[in-house]
UniProtKB/TrEMBL annotation:
Domain of life: Eukaryota
Protein name according to UniProt: AB hydrolase-1 domain-containing protein
Record Gene3D superfamilies: alpha/beta hydrolase
A Pfam family matched in the record: Abhydrolase_1
Domain spans labelled AB hydrolase-1: 196-300
């Protein structure tokens, strides 16, 4: 087959992918609207109130501040939400606009057509007016007790969450931390020479390290180091608070509380993967004298073209709303559709014990680790 034929086939494949994707994601947009109504009704029936979602339109900052005079929104190179109580700044969080600016496929197509017709890239830039989403305002009000403490906290776990002990730890103020320390200390009771913190990535847990890397650490290295592998906030056996916005600040503070402060860590190395690389860099910025080295595995770095809004560009790159390849389709559903993602979580996460049992039966109570060929029983 000649180069021209291959090029023609590739072009036809891309066109078909775009056409099918347009139809599929328009249908998913409609399904998302329907699920929004369904979950509001279900939440109200199960919990007596529905929780605000991010698929509705943003509220103007003036309206948000005027309601109580205690929520102030500013913009300094990005979205900033400042919570105020009695004229005192209590909380400052960076809220990515991708949390609440996820236009539908048809809206994106209309914006692109408008931008190409006008010959400007204005549609790609953030609007001049600052807006804050009502869901964020309500969450922040719940956190800081705005309104005289009359806010009714959301139940945790919710009706749609798993209620097992692993998913709902008793200690909600700290992360789950897997610790491997030298037996008896170095030199008969002396403190370890070094500490190493392992931070996993998205859709993962501390098992990413404890089942692959830590078993292969040499005895000599173990005798001199403490090894920490954390489950990040909302992952694995760590807390999953219903009113958390899971910001960079919250993740870093939980690592500080659960590892640095609790275990008296003064200097440490960091090994991080994917999402964990962002947290590793944040820790290095906050503790420049304490972090001795950074090892970043597959850090999520995306060069952003000039004139593009960085967050929106990365969202479109990671989740391009295409049906092919399958990983792009899965990422698109997870990133663009709040209520579809909740449905997937109910099916998979809420019933994870049933899926785990089915997997064990299907594999005859065995699994094959990808780093070796010898199977071992999961019951060992």
């Amino acid at each position: 087959m000649g180069a021209a034929a291959r090029s023609a086939l590739a072009s036809a494949g891309r066109a078909a992918n775009e056409a099918v994707s347009l139809v599929v994601f328009v249908l998913l947009d409609a399904l998302e609207v329907l699920l929004c109504v369904v979950y509001k009704v279900a939440d109200y029936v199960a919990e007596g109130a529905w929780r605000p979602c991010y698929c509705s339109r943003s509220a103007p900052a003036a309206a948000a501040a005027g309601a109580t005079g205690k929520i102030v929104v500013s913009e300094r190179g990005g979205s900033k939400v400042v919570s105020m109580l009695s004229s005192t700044k209590l909380h400052l969080e960076d809220i990515s606009d991708t949390l609440y600016e996820r236009p539908s496929v048809l809206a994106c197509a209309a914006a692109s057509a408008s931008a190409s017709g006008s010959g400007s890239g204005a549609s790609k830039r953030r609007p001049a007016g600052v807006a804050v989403h009502s869901a964020i305002v309500q969450m922040l009000r719940g956190k800081i007790g705005v309104g005289g403490g009359k806010h009714r906290p959301y139940p945790s776990p919710r009706w749609s969450d798993c209620h097992c002990a692993n998913c709902n730890p008793a200690d909600t103020g700290r992360l789950f931390v897997h610790v491997e320390a030298p037996q008896g200390g170095v030199g008969g009771g002396a403190a370890p020479e070094e500490d190493v913190l392992f931070i996993h990535g998205f859709i993962s847990s501390s098992g990413f390290w404890t089942e692959t890397v830590l078993p292969h650490v040499s005895p000599s290295a173990r005798s001199r180091r403490r090894l920490f592998a954390v489950d990040l906030l909302g992952f694995g056996r760590s807390p999953k608070p219903a009113d958390s916005l899971y910001t960079l600040r919250e993740h870093v503070e939980m690592i500080e509380r659960s590892v640095i402060e609790r275990h008296g860590v003064r200097s440490f190395h960091i090994v991080a993967h994917s999402l964990g690389s962002i947290l590793a860099l944040a820790l290095a910025v906050k503790y420049p004298a304490a972090v001795r080295s950074l090892t970043l595995v597959a850090p999520p770095y995306f060069p952003v073209p000039r004139g593009e809004v960085g967050t929106q560009y990365v969202l479109r790159t990671v989740a391009p709303r295409r049906v092919w390849p399958p990983i792009a389709f899965g990422a698109s559903v997870a990133c663009w559709y709040e209520h579809l993602s909740r449905t997937v979580s109910i099916v998979l996460c809420k019933h994870h014990r049933l899926w785990e049992l089915a997997f064990r039966v299907f594999t005859l109570y065995r699994r094959r680790p990808f780093w070796g060929n010898k199977p071992f029983s999961i019951l060992q």
